[in-house]
Specification:
binds iron/sulfur cluster, mainly alpha, 0% strand
Length: 115
């Protein structure tokens, strides 16, 4: 996965996902909401998606500040729990950044998420 496109507007990210997301035209959209709690199938589909980085970044923005129970489905090859944790870590970084300059750490973290 490419680095997360943190400098792209949410509107543009949504346009890219809507235009090219594998799940958008899939006849089996339920695959991204596994009822058995096993995300392997959805992850595999996402890994081949051309907008995986855009999708994950958009999901993280849309879900920032939401409670864990309100985050659903696999997006950007990440489960709801994984995205919830990433957003909590982003919030921690943002709080730390206000008290100290750690912009290099934030950039490194975003690259780590995308790996
Ligand atoms: S990364 Fe996965 S959830 Fe996101 S648009 Fe692509 S197929 Fe859909």
């Amino acid at each position: 996965m490419n680095a997360l496109p943190t400098n792209v507007s949410s509107r543009v990210l949504a346009q890219h996902v809507d235009a090219s997301g594998t799940c958008v035209r899939s006849p089996n959209a339920d695959a991204w909401f596994p009822e058995n709690g096993r995300p392997a199938g959805a992850r595999k589909l996402c890994k081949g998606c051309p907008v995986i980085a855009e999708c994950l970044e958009l999901a993280l923005r849309e879900e920032a500040g939401l409670g864990r129970s309100r985050v659903q489905g696999v997006r950007g090859s990440r489960t709801p729990t994984e995205r919830y944790r990433i957003n909590r870590q982003r919030a921690d970084f943002a709080a730390a950044r206000q008290s100290a300059d750690c912009s290099d750490d934030v950039a490194s973290y975003n690259e780590e998420i995308a790996a």
